[in-house]
Each structure stands twice: as C-alpha cells, then as structure tokens.
C-alpha cells in the first residue's frame, strides 16, 4: 500500500472511535434497553423473604405507586444505597425489595439456607437502615429475568396500574432521584 | 481567602502555560531565538505556581476548612493527618490537581535537563507540553476546581475520605500511577516535536528514551501497587478484575512497553522510525482515553468516580484536538520517513518487531473488551457484557508466543544470525523447562491442568533463557569478574525486567490454579481446616480507631499442631459515612498467603469467616516490582543518559 494512505489509517481509526465515544457520552450506558419499560409488571407469584408462608403476586402490588429495588447482601453498592433509600422511605416512598441471590445456583445443586440468609439480611438492614416495606424472594431469578435485570442494584418505578415508568441500573442517590425518578413521580400526581 | 489564593495561583499558572505554548512554538517556527529561550523559565514558573496551589489545598484540608466543597466532600476532622493529605487526591477535583502537579513537574524537569538539545527541538517539546498544560488547567479552572466554596451554608463536619482509600497503598498508588501516566506526555511531546521538525532520525529516539523509561517505570510500579492494594484492602482476595479503570492504566503500559523496545531499535539501528513515533502518540492518547473513560461515566465501572457528561465532553474535545491533531501531523509527515538499516529474518530487529506486535495486539484486546459493550449498544445490537473470561482467555493465548520469543530474542544479534549455534541451546532450555515444571507441579499437587503446566513452563523457560544468555555473555570475557563488569546496567535491567515477567507469569498461573477458599461459620474455639493449615477461631474483640469502630476476629493458624501465626481480621464501621469495611488479615509468605476476612455476626454467637489459601500470589507483585526497578536501574546507567547529552549543538534554524 502507498505510504501516504497507510499514514492515514491511525487517524481514520481514531475518528471512527471518537464518533462512538461521542455517542456513548450522550447515550446513557446505565440505561440498558429493557423491553419492559412502559409495559406492565410481569405476572409472578413469589414468597416473602422473611415468611415463606406469605406469597406476593403482581395483582397484590397494584393500586399504589412504588419502587421495586433489586438487591442482595453480597452487593456492596446495595449496602451503600440503603441509607438513601431509607431516607426516601421516611419521606413516604413505598419501596419493595426484590431479593436477588447471587451465590445460589440451582443448576449446580447448591444448597440454599434461608435461615442463614434471613439472619444476614436482618443484620445488614438493622445496621445500615431498612427501607423496605417487604422483600420478595426471587430465588430462581424468574421475575428478575422477566424484568431484564442484569445485576444489582437496579430500581424500577411502578405506577398504580402496575406499569413500569423508570428502570435505573446502579445505585440510587440524590442526583439519580432528582434526574430520573422525581420528574416521573411529579407527572403521576396532578 | 486562602482557597481563593490557591485558585488564583492556578490562574497564573495557566497564563504561564499559555505563554509556554505560544512563545517557543512561534519562536521555533519563525526562527526567533529570544522567544524560544523564554520556554525554560516559563515552564519553571508554571510548575512553581501549580505546586503552590497544591500546597494550599493540602493546607486547607489539614485545617478542616469545610467551607470548601472539596474538603467537605472528601475529608473530616477526625481523619488522621496523613489520610487528610491523601484525601487531597482521593476525589476527582483533587486528583486532577495532582495530575497538574505531575504534568508541570515533568515539564520543568524537561526544561532543566534538555540543555544539550538544539533550541528548535527543545522549544517545540516544551511548547507541546505547554499546550497540554493549558488543556488540563483550563479543565481544572473551568469545571473541576477543588477550591470551590460552599458559602453561605457549609457543613460543620466533612463527609470523610472513602474508607476504601484509607490505606497506605492508596497514599502512594495514585501519585505513582499519575507520574507514569503524565510522564508519557513527555514521550508524546518529543514525538510531536520530531514530527514538526521533520527530522525523525535516531537522535530523537535517544532523547526520548530516558524519559519514556522513567514514565514507564513509574507506571509499572503504580499498577503493581494498585493490584496489591486491591488484594489487601478489598477483602475478596482478588488482584485483577479487568475493570475499565484498571484497563485504562494497563493499555498505556502495554504500548509504553512496546515503545521502549522499539525506541531501542530506532536508536541503535535507525529502523522502525515511523512506527516508534506512532507508538509514542498512541501511548499518551491511551492515557487521555483512559482519563475520559474513568471521568465521563461512559462505561460502568466498579470504581465510583464523580462522573459528569459535561466533563466528559470537555475531555473528549481535548482528546479529539490532541490525538486528532497529532495523527494528522503523523499522516502528513510519515511518507517522508525513510528507513536506513537492513536486516534479515533471524535478527534482533525482527524479534523486537514481533514483541511490538504482541504487545499492541494485547492492548487492542483490552481496548476492544473495554469499549465493545458500548459500541455494541450504540450500533443498536443490544447490551452485551464482556467479562473476565474473555480477557483471561485472550491473554493466556497471547502470552505463549510472547514468552517463547522473550527467551529467544535477547540471544539474537542485530541484522542477522546463524541460527544453528542457537538452536541446541533453545532445545536444551525447552527440555529443561518441561522437566523442572513437571518436577515442581507433580511433586506438589495432585491435579495439574494443561494450562497450568504451560504457564509455569513458560515462566521457567524465561528464567532459563535469561540465565543462559547471562552466563554466555559473562563467559565470553577472559575472567568472570571482567565479564560481569563489561555488562552495562542496561543489560542487568533487561535481565531483571525479563525475570520479573517470569515471576508475574508463574504467580498468575499458580495462584489462579491452586488458590482455595472456604466460607465457614465458627464459634470461639472451633477449628476449620484448609489445605495443611488449621484455623482456630479465638473470638472477637471490639476495636475503635480514630474515625471508626468495629470488631476484630482473632484466628490462630496451626500447622501440624504448631502455631504459625495469629491472624487479626477487622470489620470496621466508619463513623461519618456509616460504611463498613473489611480489613483482611494476611500472613504473607514467599510460597503462599493465608488470607482471612471477617464476615457478619450470626445469631448463635458464631461468626462468618472466609479463609483463603493463595499459593505464590506474592510472585506477581515481586515480578511487578522487579520490572519497575529494571526501569529505574536503566535511568541510573550513565551510558544511557549520556547518549542523550552527546549532541550538544546550539543549532538554530
């Protein structure tokens, strides 16, 4: 190849890369495209984390605006956001926890110890704050899968009709609340 | 008032950088020696004002001035004084100010130590550094000032330094990393100046080499200490996560390593010139790209940095200007470059060329793995995630030819070789490496995976090849002491660097293959066994530090009934932010680490504990240290430095 043309190759690669970087800057990387945004909560019937006799279904959650917060004791970012979520709860926001266990994998025949988990959860919540009205235990990650959850923490805003208005991946903080959740909630309350 | 003085000092420094950018470049263009001569004093002045400004930030942090937003965010009155100093670079704004300190210090050093350079080149190098200085200072003053006030309402107490950063490793890791990162701007400036002058001869490589070596040595040390810090502080026993932020420092390191090798070829043989220039530009471009990735929030990282699209946009614009501009200059000039030397396939030139190919491919793998998830999404192909397995797999493939080459290359001579004298030595080394590895692994472990065997054998091969070459060079002289004396420090540095890589490969391979861990819940007096060690849980003490309280689990480690060590693993709660931190207890050893992390208290008086047995984990950092010291040793080599001073001509265009 001609040396002059060859000399242009690095520049061309760089320009191409810059275009992507520029787009990436304005496309929010945390906004993972979820097919569920704007749709209804998937149907589910799952046990309560603290009381296996109690079962929660999507029907029961309807009629109230709430946040669904996907979390786990194994996740340091979840621990970090507990304080802020508790503040939100004190302001009157209803927060439902979706407990997402990372370690347990039924495909590998792992043993699951719900008693130990409850202890762990109680410990963590009593120290760092408990923002949850209750926790749903999604052991097989079926609801999480339907929601398009890719990790923890993730938070969904659901309206009275059970429609998902906001999906946020990453920790919840003042900035995120003001930027993403507060405007959506304001639209709900005329 | 005092924070404002700090800000004002930065404004003055910025004004001086602006002059540093304009005067010498203009002078070099128009042949005005007086303008060019202004460069060194401007560089020095800029440096003094930046350092003054940084001292003020340290002062207001030490005096708990919480009217300043940065201090309120990153420090607190209960923080020990040394961590207060650390907090000045623990947050985004302060880290950028530290970057400026490094940048202007490198610039001042170049100004002082480049007296032997022709004025045209000296002026252009300093002018380019001045331009970079303007870019970063404008960024600091405009959107990232650490001196911003929180008046009239300010907190009575700061939010404390992130507990993760309250560790000795964190005191030295960022400054070292930045030294390296920013130091690569000097190699960049030399490359651009050479392109501007249009003289891409081997003298350029000579001048650039010591600076590149210094930057590279700091970068190596910074990365090594960063890895060690992650291991000892994060409490999960890991040492590399392939996180975008880690990748951001690995990419420039890989290219800088290639650059060091190709600079030597350019200097000694006059070939690879345009390639070497491109590497110098790429190395620094990757530093800027890394900064962009880390500071813009474009990619999700486990490291929580203050991210802000406006800041990201500024860095991207600066990146486009610097990299786009320099690659345009490169495209314009590269066709004029002619190679002088001739060489055949079996030569050191070719082996170093291959070395460069491997290192650049490694960088591209990291770059691809880091950016692909974002590009994939932007192309509308949906979200994907590229995880640790991708990087591990690619690197384990790439390291095989690289390590083999590393054992062969140093024995080759420039231009051409008759291979038939070298083949027997290589064959013997290969056979020996396999025998030693087999004895080592099958003697010590029940299970040996093929990849583990391969990795270990490669490390042994590097040790053997390096030793063979060393012995041969010493034996070629009349007496052994004379033989040792004849080998310059640069040669010893190469030996050290290559052995260091051997240690890294062996450490990574063995610790990945043979690390074991156990999660247990124990009551005081109970014993858990892992490998040949018994861990007896003695109980938990309440501890309290200057700004935290918590629990310490005491575990006695026994081997064959004899006490080895008493481990003391802490779980701290930091008072201000109410954050929990694990301080793992580590009994380090040359052949194995015993690593213990304290978990939660369980209801029945038992505690959750995690025990790790990590063989050879220290070899990685030992290797990293050897590699960095190799760089510093080269700098101590008078011959190496003198080469940059030989041509003292006051040639003015």
TrEMBL record, chain A:
GO BP, one annotated term:
cytochrome complex assembly
Q: Which InterPro entries match?
A: Periplasmic_diS_OxRdtase_DsbE, Redoxin, Thioredoxin-like_sf, Thioredoxin_CS, Thioredoxin_domain, Thioredoxin_ResA/DsbE_sf
Q: Where is the Thioredoxin domain?
A: 35-186
| Compartment annotation | Cell inner membrane
Its chief place of residence is: membrane
**GO MF assignments:** disulfide oxidoreductase activity
Task: List keywords of the entry alphabetically.
Answer: Cytochrome c-type biogenesis, Disulfide bond, Redox-active center
**One Pfam assignment:** Redoxin
Top-level taxon in the UniProt lineage = Bacteria
Gene3D superfamilies per record:
Glutaredoxin (3.40.30.10)
| Keyword Disulfide bond (UniProt) | yes
The name this protein carries in UniProt is: DsbE family thiol:disulfide interchange protein
Per the record, membrane topology reads:
Single-pass membrane protein
- What cellular-component terms does GO give this entry? outer membrane-bounded periplasmic space; plasma membrane
UniProt record similarity statement: Belongs to the thioredoxin family. DsbE subfamily.
UniProtKB/TrEMBL annotation, chain B:
GO cellular component assignments? plasma membrane
Single GO biological process annotation from the record? cytochrome complex assembly
The text of the family note is: Belongs to the CcmF/CycK/Ccl1/NrfE/CcsA family.
GO terms, molecular function: heme binding; heme transmembrane transporter activity; lyase activity
Q: What is this protein called?
A: Heme lyase CcmF/NrfE family subunit
Q: What is the native source organism of this protein?
A: Pseudoalteromonas xiamenensis
Say which domain of life the source belongs to.
Bacteria
Read off the lineage from the record: Bacteria, Pseudomonadati, Pseudomonadota, Gammaproteobacteria, Alteromonadales
Its function, per the record, reads:
Required for the biogenesis of c-type cytochromes. Possible subunit of a heme lyase.
Domain (Cytochrome c assembly protein) spans: 89-296
Where exactly are the transmembrane stretches of this chain? 6-29, 41-62, 96-113, 125-142, 178-198, 210-230, 250-266, 278-306, 312-332, 353-375, 395-414, 426-445, 451-471, 491-514, 619-636
* Residue intervals of the Cytochrome c-type biogenesis protein CcmF C-terminal domain: 316-638
């Amino acid at each position: 190849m001609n040396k002059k043309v060859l000399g242009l190759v690095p520049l061309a690669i760089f320009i191409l890369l810059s275009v992507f970087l520029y787009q990436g800057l304005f496309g929010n990387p945390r906004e993972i495209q979820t097919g569920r945004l704007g749709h209804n909560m998937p149907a589910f019937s799952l046990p309560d984390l603290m009381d296996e006799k109690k079962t929660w279904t999507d029907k029961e959650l309807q009629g109230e605006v709430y946040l669904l917060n996907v979390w786990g004791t194994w996740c340091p970012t979840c621990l970090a956001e507990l304080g802020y979520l508790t503040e939100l709860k004190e302001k009157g926001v209803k927060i439902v926890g979706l407990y997402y266990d990372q370690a347990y994998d039924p495909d590998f025949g792992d043993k699951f110890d719900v008693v130990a988990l409850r202890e762990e959860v109680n410990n963590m919540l009593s120290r760092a704050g408990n923002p949850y009205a209750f926790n749903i235990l999604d052991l097989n990650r079926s609801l999480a899968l339907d929601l398009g959850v890719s990790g923890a923490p993730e938070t969904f805003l659901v309206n009275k009709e059970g429609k998902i208005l906001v999906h946020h991946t990453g920790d919840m903080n003042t900035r995120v609340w003001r930027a993403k959740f507060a405007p959506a909630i304001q639209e709900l309350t005329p | 008032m005092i924070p404002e003085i700090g800000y004002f000092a930065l404004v003055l420094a910025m004004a001086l950088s602006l002059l540093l950018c304009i005067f010498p470049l203009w002078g070099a263009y128009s042949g005005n020696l007086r303008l060019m001569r202004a460069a060194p004093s401007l560089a020095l002045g800029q440096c003094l004002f930046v350092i003054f400004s940084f001292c003020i930030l340290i002062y207001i942090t030490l005096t708990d001035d919480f009217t300043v937003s940065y201090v309120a965010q990153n420090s607190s009155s209960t923080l020990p004084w040394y961590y207060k100093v650390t907090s000045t670079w623990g947050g985004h704004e302060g880290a950028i100010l530290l970057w400026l300190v490094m940048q202007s210090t490198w610039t001042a050093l170049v100004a002082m130590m480049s007296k032997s350079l022709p004025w045209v080149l000296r002026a252009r190098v300093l002018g380019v550094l001045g331009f970079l200085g303007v870019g970063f200072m404008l960024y600091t003053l405009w959107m990232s000032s650490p001196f911003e006030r929180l008046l009239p309402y300010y907190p009575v107490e700061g939010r404390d330094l992130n507990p993760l950063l309250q560790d000795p490793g964190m005191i030295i890791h960022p400054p070292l990393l930045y030294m390296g990162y920013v130091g690569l701007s000097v190699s960049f400036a030399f490359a651009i100046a050479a392109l501007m002058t249009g003289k891409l001869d081997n003298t350029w490589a000579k001048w650039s080499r010591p600076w590149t070596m210094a930057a590279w040595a700091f970068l190596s040390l910074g990365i090594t200490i960063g890895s060690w810090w992650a291991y000892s502080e994060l409490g999960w026993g890991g040492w590399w996560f392939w996180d975008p932020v880690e990748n951001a420092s690995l990419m420039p390191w890989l290219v800088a390593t290639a650059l060091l090798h190709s600079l030597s070829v350019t200097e000694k043989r006059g070939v690879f010139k345009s390639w070497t220039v491109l590497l110098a530009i790429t190395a620094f471009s990757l530093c800027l790209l890394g900064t962009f990735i880390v500071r813009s929030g474009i990619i999700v990282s486990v490291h929580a940095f203050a991210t802000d699209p406006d800041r990201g946009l500024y860095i991207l614009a600066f990146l486009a200007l610097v990299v786009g501009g320099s690659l345009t200059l490169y495209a314009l000039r590269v066709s004029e470059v002619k190679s002088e030397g001739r060489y055949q396939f079996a030569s050191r030139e070719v082996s170093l060329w291959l070395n460069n190919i491997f290192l650049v491919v490694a960088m591209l793998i990291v770059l691809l793995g880091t950016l692909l998830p974002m590009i994939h999404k932007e192309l509308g192909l949906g979200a994907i995630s590229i995880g640790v397995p991708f990087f591990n797999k690619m690197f384990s493939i790439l390291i095989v030819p690289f390590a083999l080459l590393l054992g062969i290359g140093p024995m080759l001579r420039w231009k051409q070789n008759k291979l038939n004298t070298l083949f027997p030595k290589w064959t013997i080394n290969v056979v020996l490496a396999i025998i030693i590895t087999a004895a080592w692994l099958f003697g010590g472990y029940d299970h040996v995976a093929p990849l583990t065997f391969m990795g270990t054998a490669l490390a042994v091969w590097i040790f053997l090849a390096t030793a063979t070459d060393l012995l041969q060079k010493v034996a070629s002289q009349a007496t052994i002491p004379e033989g040792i004396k004849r080998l310059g420090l640069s040669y010893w540095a190469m030996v050290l660097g290559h052995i260091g890589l051997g240690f890294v490969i062996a450490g990574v391979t063995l610790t990945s293959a043979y690390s074991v861990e156990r999660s247990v819940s124990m009551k005081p007096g109970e014993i858990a066994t892992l490998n040949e060690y018994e861990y007896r849980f003695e109980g938990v003490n309440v501890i309290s530090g200057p700004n935290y309280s918590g629990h310490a689990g005491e575990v006695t480690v026994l081997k064959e009934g004899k006490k080895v060590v008493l481990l003391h693993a802490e779980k701290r709660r930091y008072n201000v932010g109410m954050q929990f931190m694990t301080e793992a207890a580590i009994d380090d050893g040359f052949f194995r680490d015993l690593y213990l992390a304290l978990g939660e208290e369980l209801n029945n008086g038992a505690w959750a504990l995690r025990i790790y047995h990590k063989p050879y984990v220290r070899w990685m950092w030992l290797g990293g240290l050897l590699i960095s010291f190799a760089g510093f040793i080269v700098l101590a080599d008078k011959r190496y430095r003198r080469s940059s001073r030989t041509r003292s001509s006051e040639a003015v265009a």
